[in-house]
């Protein structure tokens, strides 16, 4: 997971009205989750029919109120995948509209580089090079790796926008063995977070990156929410809004994963 610290008033402008930024000190937290999923299939089905895919989700840590009180999770303005099945099924069979994109990944000897290219942007949506390390960065908003891990573990409910719709799709990530490790960062480039029309100069700064490997998990649908249509969220545009269906898949633990996304739902 690639994490940025952002001025709260700037983040609020790209959030649906129902949400407010979840703060660490004086800053909101936003970022990009990059996930490799393997052996994904409907619950109860054999692993041999499972599919694998590379995926990304831009997300912002948020809080909101409902009938049970105050809740926290993430708002996901955009999801991308290299799986045609995910792109077709997202928003139809399971929650979350996905852009079909091209992922170029190298993951060897503790060094990871990843690039996401899309048809709706001339430059890469995401381009990173990171490496596994034992040290947590001293300049982070979070004092320790454990403090960072706890913050993102509580944000496992995600709501994603649907283009030209006031509906927000809900998805819950359940992880039985939550484990994260720090990453050193050679470079991070994001077409979304580097967009100065959305995030002006000095309003956003990269904070730190985390890694999860070989984590069993499940995805469950959450009740959809409705809100006023956000106007500044151009990261979610240019994807047709698929028809809604009532059936939603519950997905069992994958057999193997590499995830830069402990906080993604």
Characterization of the model:
The protein is mostly beta strands. The chain has a single domain (2-259), classed as Beta Barrel (Acetoacetate decarboxylase-like), CATH 2.40.400. The protein is 8% helix and 46% strand. It has a 16-stranded mixed beta sheet that branches. A hairpin with an 8-residue loop joins β9 (111-117) and β10 (126-132). The N and C termini lie close together (12 Å). Residues 230-259 and 261-265 have low confidence and may be disordered.
Would you kindly provide a brief summary of this structure?
The chain has helices at 8-12, 84-89, 145-153; strands at residues 2-6, 20-21, 23-24, 27-40, 51-66, 69-81, 99-100, 102-108, 111-117, 126-132, 157-161, 167-175, 181-190, 204-213, 217-226, 258-259. With 265 residues, it is mainly beta.
List the helices and strands and how they pair.
Elements: E1 2-6, H1 8-12, E2 20-21, E3 23-24, E4 27-40, E5 51-66, E6 69-81, H2 84-89, E7 99-100, E8 102-108, E9 111-117, E10 126-132, H3 145-153, E11 157-161, E12 167-175, E13 181-190, E14 204-213, E15 217-226, E16 258-259
Total domains: 1
Largest sheet geometry: 16 strands, mixed
Helix vs. strand class? mainly beta
CATH T-level fold name: Acetoacetate decarboxylase-like
Low-confidence stretches: 230-259, 261-265
CATH architecture identity:
Beta Barrel
Q: What's the CATH C level?
A: Mainly Beta
């Amino acid at each position: 997971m690639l994490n940025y610290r952002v001025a709260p008033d700037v983040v609020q402008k790209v959030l649906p009205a129902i949400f407010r930024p979840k703060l660490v000190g004086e800053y909101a937290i936003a970022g990009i989750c990059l996930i490799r999923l393997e052996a994904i299939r409907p619950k109860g089905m054999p692993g041999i029919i499972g599919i694998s895919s590379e995926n990304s989700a831009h997300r912002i840590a948020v809080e909101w109120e409902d009938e049970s009180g105050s809740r926290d999770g993430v708002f996901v303005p955009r999801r991308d995948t290299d799986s045609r099945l995910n792109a077709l099924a997202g928003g139809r069979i399971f929650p979350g509209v996905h852009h079909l994109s091209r992922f170029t990944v190298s993951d060897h000897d503790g060094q990871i580089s990843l690039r996401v290219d899309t048809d709706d942007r001339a430059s890469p949506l995401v381009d990173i090079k990171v490496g596994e390390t034992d040290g947590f960065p001293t300049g982070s908003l979070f004092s320790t790796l454990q403090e960072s891990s706890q913050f993102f573990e509580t944000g496992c409910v995600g709501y994603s926008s649907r283009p030209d719709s006031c509906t927000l799709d809900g998805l819950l990530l359940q992880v039985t063995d939550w484990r994260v490790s720090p990453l050193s960062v050679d470079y991070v480039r994001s077409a979304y977070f580097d967009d100065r029309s959305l995030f002006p100069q000095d309003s956003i700064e990269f904070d730190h990156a985390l890694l999860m490997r070989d984590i069993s998990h499940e995805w469950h649908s959450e009740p959809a929410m409705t809100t006023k249509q956000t106007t500044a969220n151009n990261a979610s545009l240019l994807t047709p809004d698929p028809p809604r269906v009532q059936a939603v898949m519950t997905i069992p633990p994958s057999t193997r994963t590499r995830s830069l996304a402990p906080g993604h739902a």
